[in-house]
């Protein structure tokens, strides 16, 4: 028996938004005699059903784009499904992603795919530029059937395999059965849900954590689909499933009496009382913030003055934190690391390679003798062996103490009383 950690469970339980683009190939345009409006209406109906299917997986599928290949296909679309899928993935990565931000693209084709194939998608490819794709055939005039084909192929992209005999969804057939049934299914099986959780845990498809703004959604608003779309103030799903007390599920409008819906200083529909802490201190250099009782937002972050001594005089406060070279060494090299001896920092006087204080027009500028502890960070793991931190993040952080009474500002070791 397997148990999820609280961190994993939190990751599983978060709502996902798979921003979908559907590309309509040239054969589809010809099949519908160039009636793009009719194809759009069909796509909207299909995506609406797709959302009804995926809502049980805590997934929303906002349609953020529809593209028609009216003048001819932009890839070689053939009945060989795998070749077409690979070409479509390459085209998405090379061209579509740069034009339209989205998470997943599907090619809607009127070609008769070879054999019994009516759709295809790479296994566990969600959020990958070439592999977060699928193709599906206009196999049936019934929208629900086509929606199930997309749901099935997207399921593969989410790491879900075909169901086996012992898998159960409480109905005669499930979404991930190898063959589509009549009537078409609506639910994913218990096997599918376990495989999806495994995918989340091992592949971390973080592109699906971003909720698109309502202005990005191109399909007409549907009140009750739990997607916030144009013209809606809120959408909490159907009245029987709505969990948002601020929202009238029937109209997708906020109740007239509410003060707020979401926010750090908002509890269900009302401002939190004045004096409620909304942002705790991050360090001894930070200050807590409290709700005002008149706004849903937590006040702007405040902190102790820059230059205030911190960490037993080992550092000085800087924008709410206490930067020290010791802490930076721990972050770069782990718990055994310590700040290097002074001699290591002499390398920063070289002004070449990684050893410098600043770059101007891509030319490295050596540190002056008094500034050597404001250039490249040096640490020790083994005593008397200098280890440098690499890359831009390997420079000593701004605000770090470089001498008693001095801090690094603009790569210069500056008097703390005049630095700010």
From TrEMBL:
Catalytic residues, per the record, are: 153
Give a GO cellular-component term: plasma membrane
Which sites bind Zn(2+)?
152, 156, 162
Cofactor(s) demanded: Zn(2+)
* Annotated localization: Secreted
Q: Which UniProt keywords apply?
A: Disulfide bond, Glycoprotein, Hemostasis impairing toxin, Hydrolase, Metal-binding, Secreted, Toxin, Zinc, Zymogen
Protein name (record): Group III snake venom metalloproteinase
* Origin organism lineage: Eukaryota, Metazoa, Chordata, Craniata, Vertebrata
């Amino acid at each position: 028996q397997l148990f999820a950690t609280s961190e994993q469970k939190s990751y599983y339980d978060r709502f996902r938004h798979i921003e979908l683009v559907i590309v309509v190939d040239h054969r589809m345009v010809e099949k519908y005699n160039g009636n793009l409006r009719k194809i759009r209406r069909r796509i909207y109906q299909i995506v609406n059903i797709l959302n009804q299917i995926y809502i049980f997986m805590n997934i929303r599928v906002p349609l953020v784009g529809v593209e028609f290949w009216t003048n001819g296909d932009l890839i070689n679309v053939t009945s060989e499904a795998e070749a077409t899928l690979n070409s479509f993935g390459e085209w998405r990565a090379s061209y579509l992603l740069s034009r339209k931000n989205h998470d997943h693209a599907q090619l809607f084709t009127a070609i008769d795919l070879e054999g019994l194939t009516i759709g295809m998608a790479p296994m566990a490819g969600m959020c990958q530029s070439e592999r977060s794709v699928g193709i599906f055939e206009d196999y049936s005039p019934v929208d629900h059937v086509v929606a199930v084909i997309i749901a099935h192929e997207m399921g593969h992209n989410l790491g879900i395999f075909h169901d086996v005999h012992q898998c159960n969804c409480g109905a005669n057939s499930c979404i991930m059965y190898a063959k589509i049934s009549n009537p078409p299914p609506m639910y994913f099986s218990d096997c599918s849900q376990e495989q999806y959780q495994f995918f989340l845990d091992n592949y971390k498809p973080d592109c699906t954590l971003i909720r698109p703004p309502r202005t990005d959604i191109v399909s007409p608003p549907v009140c009750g689909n739990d997607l916030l779309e144009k013209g809606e103030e809120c959408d909490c799903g159907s009245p029987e499933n709505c969990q948002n007390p601020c929202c009238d599920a029937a109209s997708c409008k906020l109740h007239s009496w509410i003060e707020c819906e979401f926010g750090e200083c908002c509890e269900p529909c009302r401002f939190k009382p004045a004096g409620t802490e909304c942002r705790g201190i991050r360090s001894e250099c930070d200050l807590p913030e409290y709700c005002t009782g008149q706004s849903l937002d937590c006040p702007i972050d405040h902190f102790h003055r820059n230059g205030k001594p911190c960490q037993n005089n080992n550092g000085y406060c800087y924008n709410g934190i206490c930067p020290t070279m010791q802490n930076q060494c721990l972050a770069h090299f782990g718990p055994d690391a310590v700040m290097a001896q002074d001699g290591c920092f002499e390398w920063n006087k070289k002004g070449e390679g990684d050893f410098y204080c600043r770059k101007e027009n891509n030319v490295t500028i050596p540190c002056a003798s008094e500034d050597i502890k404001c250039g490249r960070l040096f640490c020790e793991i083994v005593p008397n062996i200098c280890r440098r931190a690499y890359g831009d993040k390997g420079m000593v952080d701004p605000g770090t103490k470089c001498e008693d009474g001095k801090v690094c500002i603009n790569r210069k070791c500056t008097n703390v009383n005049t630095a700010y």
